[in-house]
Every structure is written in C-alpha cells, then in structure tokens.
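Reminder to self: tokens first, then the designed residues, so the page reads top to bottom the way the pipeline ran.
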C-alpha cells in the first residue's frame, strides 16, 4: 500500500507542478541540488523530490531525479523548508533546508533505505539486477549469492562474463591481456584482488573499449567498486591455500589490516604468490638447409619455482567534503626459476650428428616498487572535479641462466634490466549543461630503460598526451566521443632519435530500445607499446642452437575496433550479443631466422596486419534460485597479411576460425555450503608467423562458511588430466617447421585446501577514490 501511495503521489506531484505560480521570476532565485542513491551507492532514477514550507507543510514545488539520481530544484522565497524524498520500494526521507543568503544549496548525497516486508521470521528484499548496459561500460552488481560463493575478489571476477583467469591468475578480458584493474579508482593488479573480501564489493564495471581518458595501451578496464561505507576502527582478513603435495604448490596467501578514523584511512596488506610444479617441455625444429633436412630436437624436465611477495601501504586523508589526498605504494620482490635437465639432439637427413645433456640452473631476482600521490578537488557544481596524480615506478632485475654441459663447458645467459618511470597527470571533469559532460586532461611520462650487463642498451622515452571527450545524455540516446593525442620521443642506441605522433579517436552511441534493452555502436583506436625485453637488441642465449633478441626500432602495434552491441535484461538475467571487426597493424612477433650452423635467432619484429571479424555472446544468468551461470563465447575469422619482411622469410598469409569460450557456475546450498566450477577453452590463436595454443582449463571448489568469519574449502584444477599444456606454439613456413609444448605434470586429482578468517570492529566511515596510471607487466621466464 505504501508503494502504491508513493506512486500515486508522484503522479499528482508531476501534474500539479505544471500549474505553479510563475509571478516571482523577478525575485532572487535559490537552487537546491544533490543526488539520490540507494544503500549500495546506485543512483535512483525518477525518485520524487517535493519541497514544503516548514511552518505549515504547504506544498511549494517538486521534481524528479534523472537517470543517475541527480536532481535540481529552484525557488524564489527566502524561508525555511523541508524536502520529502520518495521512491517506490524505499522508505521516505525528510531533509531540512534553509534558503537565506546562499543562492545555491548543495545537499550532497541523499541515501534512501530499501523498504522491507517482514513475515514472521522471513525477510524479503528485492534481488539486485545482475547487470546494466551503459554507453561506455557494463556494470555487474554483486548480490549475496555472489559474495558467499567467492573466497576472494579474484574468485568473484571469475563470475563476470568475458573475464578469464588462467592457472597462474593472469587476467584477460575477452581475450585481451592488456587489462587495467582499478579498485575504487585506484590502479591495482591481480595480486591485490586476493586481498579484498567479496562482501566489501558493491559492483564491477567492465569497459571493453575504454575512453580517451585511459592510456593508449589499455585494451580493457575492470573497475571494482567497494561499498561506500567501511567500518570505523580495525578490519581485515587472513587467507591462504594450503598445498597437499610438495611438488604441487599452488598458493596465493594474503593478509590485510585496515584502520579507519574520522578523516583518515590507513591500509597495510600483503599479497603472495607461490607455484612449484614439475614441467616437461619439447621443442622440435625441422629446418631445410641447402636442400638437406635438419631436425633439432630439444626436451626438458624442470621444476618451476615461482614466488612473489608484495607489500602494499595506503593512506587516505579526507580534508573536507571537497578535498581528498591519497598516498599509496608497494614493494615487490619476486622470482621465476626453471631448474632441471635439458637434452638436445641434431639429426641431418635422419642421421644423428650431435647430442648433449645439460643441467639448467637459474638465478632470478627481481624487485619492483611503485609510489603515488593523488589529490582530488570537487567543485560546487554537481559532477565537477579536478584531480592531480604524481607517481613513480621502478624495476631492477638480475636474471642468469647456466647450462652445464656433460663435457664441462658452460653456456651462460645474463641480463640485469633496469626501468625507471616518472609520470604526472591532470584531469578535469565539468558538466557544461544539463546532460552534457566534458572530460579533459594531460599526462607526461618520462621513462628510462637499460641493461647494466649490456652497456650498449640504453633507451629513454618521453610520452606527452592530452585528451578531451564529451558525453551527451538525452533520454533514450547517449553519445560519448573523445580524442587522445600522444607524442612519443625516443632516445635510441647509437644516438638515434625516434618521434611518433598518434591521434587516437573513440566514439560510442547507445539507444535505449526499451527500459530493458539497448543497442549500441562504438569505435576505438589504441596503441600497444613494446616492453623492455622486446626493445633490448642484445642477444640472450637459450642453448647452443638458439638465441633471442629484441629490437629497439620496433614500432608500436596499432589496434582498431568497431563493434555493434545488443543487450537485454530478462527478469534480472542479463544477455549481451555483439558483432565486431578488429584490425591490428604493425603486429609484433618473434621472427625466426636460421643460419648454416644451424642456429636459430628469434628477433622481435613488426610483421604485418591481422584482421578479425566475428560475434560474441555473454550473459549473467540465474537458471535456478540458488544457481548462477555466466557464459562467454566468442567466434571470429582471422586473416593475416604479412609485410615485405614476412614474405621475404617465406611466411604465407593465414586465415581460419578461432573460438574463445568459458563459463562459471556456482550453487549455494543450505548452511552456507558452496559448490563452484570454472571452465575455459580457447582454440589455437592465429598469428602472422604461426599459432599459439593451450589446453582447456577447469577448476572445482567446495567451501563452507562459519559464523560469517571463517571459511574452509577444497579446490582442484584440471583433475584427471595429469598433463596440462599451459603454453604451446607451432610455426610453419617453406624452410622451417617448429613445434613447442610446455606441460605441467600433475597428480590424478590435485587438491589444495583453503582457509580464511575475517575480522572487523567499530562504526562506519567513507573512503577516497583515485585514478590510474601504470600497469605493471611482470616478466615471464621461458623461451619467450
């Protein structure tokens, strides 16, 4: 009855406001504005706001909020009033306001509480909508079932359609690995997601085509929003996987402690990653030299030892409602070593010419550090803000690999990379008119890359960027467009200088067909810049028959994407279908050249163009009351067109169909038992010189929560497979055929235990947001 009463009142209010007197236009005008939101920080569209005189409760004026919950109401009499906020399914809210000297009255955020219906001991609250499609992003809302079926936020994002997580917890978004992860606007990485309790997550935004405000090398954004209110006092958690077998160590321990005071928030956390596996690999090269067939067969049996320990520290200071400062940094020592046995044989026309066995011993020590100071100022104009970000990233490595041959000889490969980067950025957001938002900013980054083992490699780069974008929201049609301009100046070896000016446009148009379905079209152009290892021209020895080197003259790869998307909401189930076309120019790949010894050199080169045309389907579904199903399927036709360098080396153009697929499934049973599974399968990925592949990946997990504080569980990965190909490639051309496979050897049913303890105390407090600037790309060991 109360909901019906609120709805009826809204109708009369809208009609009555058309006949209000307008004879006071010459008097001083007062403007009242703010935003109406629910407890989960979602803007409430079309909420009713009514203005009454405080003295006699006479109705004066009224309005409704826009699609984001913002409202504005004007009046001309200087007096005391109160505002009545109402919305169907929510409790009414009263707010006193005095119109005296200030012409503009900012009320800030008005939160409405959900209306609850209680029947005996049963409490019914409407379930949150699973997803919402917006002009430049898709928002997935976290509900109670998602919280209970996730041990960490890394588990939670596996339930987001299109997000894929591999065995080593590397995150990709619809097949793209250059993903920026933000937490409340703050740049983080996969490791940080292990430290977040899913109960703290409100929603997750996915941007497949990020706007002009994001760096040019970002292919997608996963933005995790925490619930706005945190407990004032101490809170935190402890979490870890516990290995059952010593040769199957697979653990991502984390610890977090957060101290919140009235205007200060301090956070200290630790995130670790440990993986120890037995790995067997093969690499066979069939080479044609002077009409003679040469086979070089390489096999390895190694133990992978990877460890990482990252310590985070953050301090947020809320000076007042309009000025915020955030300081954050991390320190991360890590190592990735492969120790074991390497066997190699050379055959010519079927006859054994040479063979040897060696012991490989790696020493790999890396240290990275990051620090940032961020300031944000909120203007009095609703939605206007200015932010400034200063940050530093540093990396130092010591990477050595020894091959001890049977005859006593030793092959040594060494590098000591250094990387320092300083960045400054300024961003402005300003509403121009009702429904029109301007975003603009500039960024400058200076980085230096070198290798102290090879004094010949030193590279400096200065990247200057500016952007501007406009977003127009006019009812059922929303338009967003922007342009990013980047100028890169490189100091290359041998006193060379390289310059590159890039214009990177982005535009998106969305039309709301109905209240539950949308149709959108978007276009974006981005860059993929080479990494430090891809630029280092010094030769790194793999074995006596092969070596690898970078190329300081590499041009960035250029990506363009055009997509047409349709999404629909069916009883809180979300489905999205899209057709797309992507083009990559100056594709960067390792080109294999073979000398007469024979010796193969893998050198990084720009090799041509790849086109992709296809369709994709993803959804967030609930087929049963306690079952959640999130599918993702992407099918496309790939066509490669090699450049002159590729054709000179006998690389033929390729075409073929590619499938990327995956799903997550969770079931919540009584007494907080959770059963979940995740599946991922991608067919061979087509490149210019060859194809890359991996085995299907699947996880099973069962967990039990006690008293909302303790969680124990068991999980397994790829049971019954015993050998899992985590990376492989095949190269075919007229003078070379190469096949590579690296397989993790596992028991019949590998099992890991999980444990989590969560604690909290005190009252609630709010948090501060900041923006992004760097993506750390950890170096991977192995052939490439």
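Designed residues (784 positions):
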């Amino acid at each position: 009855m109360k909901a019906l009463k609120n709805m009826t009142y809204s109708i009369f209010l809208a009609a009555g406001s058309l006949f209000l007197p307008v004879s006071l236009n010459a008097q001083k005008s007062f403007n009242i504005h703010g935003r109406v939101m629910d407890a989960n920080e979602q803007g409430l569209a079309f909420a009713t706001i009514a203005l009454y005189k405080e003295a006699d409760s006479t109705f004066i004026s009224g309005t409704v909020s826009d699609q984001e919950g913002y409202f504005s109401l004007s009046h001309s009499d200087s007096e005391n009033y109160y505002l009545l906020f109402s919305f169907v399914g929510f409790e009414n809210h009263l707010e006193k306001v005095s119109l005296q000297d200030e012409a503009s009255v900012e009320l800030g955020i008005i939160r409405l509480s959900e209306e609850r219906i209680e029947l005996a001991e049963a409490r019914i609250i409407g379930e949150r909508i699973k997803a919402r499609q917006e002009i430049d992003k898709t928002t997935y809302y976290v509900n109670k079932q998602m919280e209970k079926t996730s041990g960490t936020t890394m588990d939670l994002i596996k339930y987001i359609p299109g997000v894929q997580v591999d065995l080593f917890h590397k995150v990709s978004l619809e097949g793209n690995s250059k993903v920026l992860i933000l937490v409340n606007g703050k740049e983080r990485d996969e490791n940080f997601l292990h430290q977040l309790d899913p109960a703290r997550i409100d929603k997750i935004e996915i941007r497949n085509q990020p706007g002009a405000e994001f760096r040019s090398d970002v292919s997608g954004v996963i933005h995790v929003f925490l619930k706005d209110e945190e407990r004032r006092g101490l809170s935190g958690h402890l979490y870890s996987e516990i290995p059952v077998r010593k040769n199957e160590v697979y653990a991502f321990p984390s610890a977090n402690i957060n101290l919140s005071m009235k205007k200060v928030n301090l956070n200290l956390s630790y995130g670790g990653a440990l993986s120890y596996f037995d790995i067997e690999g093969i690499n066979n090269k069939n080479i044609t030299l002077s009409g003679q067939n040469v086979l070089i067969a390489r096999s390895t049996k190694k133990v992978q030892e990877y460890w990482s320990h990252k310590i985070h520290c953050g301090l947020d200071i809320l000076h007042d409602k309009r000025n915020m400062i955030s300081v954050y940094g991390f320190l991360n020592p890590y190592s990735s070593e492969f120790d074991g046995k390497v066997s190699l044989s050379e055959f010519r026309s079927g006859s054994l010419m040479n063979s040897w066995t060696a012991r490989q011993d790696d020493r790999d020590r890396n240290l990275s550090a990051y620090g940032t100071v961020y300031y944000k100022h909120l203007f009095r104009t609703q939605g206007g803000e200015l932010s400034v970000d200063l940050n530093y990233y540093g990396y130092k490595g010591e990477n050595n690999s020894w091959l001890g041959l049977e005859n006593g000889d030793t092959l040594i490969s060494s590098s000591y990379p250094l990387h320092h980067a300083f960045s400054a950025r300024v961003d402005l957001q300003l509403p121009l008119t009702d429904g029109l938002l301007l975003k603009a900013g500039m960024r400058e980054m200076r980085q230096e890359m070198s290798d102290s083992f090879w004094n010949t490699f030193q590279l400096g780069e200065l990247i200057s960027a500016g952007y501007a974008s406009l977003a127009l929201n006019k009812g059922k049609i929303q338009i967003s467009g922007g342009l990013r301009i980047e100028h890169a100046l490189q100091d290359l070896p041998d006193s060379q200088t390289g310059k590159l000016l890039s214009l990177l446009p982005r535009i998106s148009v969305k039309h709301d067909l109905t209240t539950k379905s949308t149709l959108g079209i978007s276009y974006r152009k981005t860059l993929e810049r080479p990494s430090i290892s891809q630029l280092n021209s010094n030769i790194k020895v793999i074995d006596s028959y092969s070596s690898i080197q970078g190329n300081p003259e590499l041009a960035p790869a250029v990506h363009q994407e055009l997509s047409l998307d349709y999404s629909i909401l069916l009883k809180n189930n979300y489905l999205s279908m899209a057709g797309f076309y992507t083009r990559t120019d100056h594709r960067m790949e390792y080109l294999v050249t073979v000398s007469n010894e024979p010796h193969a050199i893998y050198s990084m080169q720009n090799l041509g163009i790849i086109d992709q045309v296809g369709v994709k389907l993803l959804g967030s579904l609930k087929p049963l009351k306690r079952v959640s199903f999130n599918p993702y399927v992407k099918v496309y036709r790939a066509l490669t067109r090699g450049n002159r360098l590729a054709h000179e080396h006998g690389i033929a153009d390729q075409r073929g169909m590619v499938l990327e697929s995956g799903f997550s499934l969770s079931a919540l049973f009584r007494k907080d038992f959770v059963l979940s599974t995740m599946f991922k399968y991608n067919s061979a990925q087509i490149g210019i010189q060859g194809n890359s592949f991996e085995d299907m990946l699947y996880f099973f997990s069962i967990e039990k929560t006690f008293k909302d504080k303790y969680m124990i569980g068991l999980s397994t990965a790829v049971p019954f497979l015993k050998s899992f190909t985590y990376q492989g490639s095949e190269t075919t051309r007229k003078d070379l055929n190469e096949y590579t496979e690296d397989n993790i050897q596992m028991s019949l049913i590998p099992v890991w235990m999980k444990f989590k303890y969560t604690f909290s105390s005190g009252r609630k407090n709010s948090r501060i947001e900041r923006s992004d600037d760097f993506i750390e790309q950890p170096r991977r060991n192995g052939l490439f």
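The CA atoms of residues 3 and 399 lie 67 Å apart.
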